[in-house]
Specification:
Radius of gyration: 15 Å
Largest sheet: 7 strands, antiparallel
Order of helices and strands: EEEHEHEHEEH
Structural class: alpha+beta
Shape: globular
Length: about 170
């Protein structure tokens, strides 16, 4: 008889002032209290499970320092074990963090800052099927945008939240 596996959550900083945090079994979310617009531009940060904690620390530091009125939400994988399970689903491979923004210029600036912070740290992440490569030095940043979905069921809960339908 095997012993139960204990999943250790990745350490994460609290959200910046003016944001609220909530979790699902696989994800942690930071959502701006003042958000009332749709988030059409995404910055996706990929990571290998072995470097997840360092990637999350860097991303939360950049978001905490920079902030932006255009940043509406941040979705972070809860643990290396969850990230490992996501490796089995091609659409989700490596997607450690997704930042949801309203402005394309801010999307590119956030991608630049994250790429600079991640580059040269000995970190890696797989290619992301959802977005297009940012093209920076880290190889871990991908951009997606212009996608607005309608709420069609519980799987669209995050999209509905970001579109202002669920608050």
């Amino acid at each position: 008889m095997s012993s139960p596996t204990v999943e250790i959550e990745s350490a994460q900083a609290p959200p910046p002032p003016g944001w609220r945090a909530f979790s699902s079994p696989s994800w942690r979310f930071w959502v701006a209290e003042s958000q009332a617009r749709s988030a059409d531009h995404l910055v996706i940060v990929t990571a290998e499970p072995g470097c997840l904690d360092k990637v999350l620390a860097i991303v939360t530091e950049v978001v905490g320092k920079r902030g932006t009125a255009s940043l509406l939400a941040v979705r972070m994988v809860r643990s290396a074990a969850v990230l490992q399970r996501l490796q089995e689903m091609p659409h989700w491979v490596g997607r450690a963090v997704t930042l949801y923004l309203t402005d394309q210029r801010e999307q590119k600036e956030m991608a630049r800052q994250l790429d600079e912070a991640l580059a040269g740290q000995g970190l890696s992440g797989p290619p992301c099927l959802r977005g297009r490569p940012y093209g920076g030095q880290s190889g871990m940043i991908f951009l997606a945008g212009g996608h607005t979905r309608q709420v069609s069921g519980p799987t669209d809960r995050l999209t509905a939240l970001l579109d202002g339908a669920l608050l």
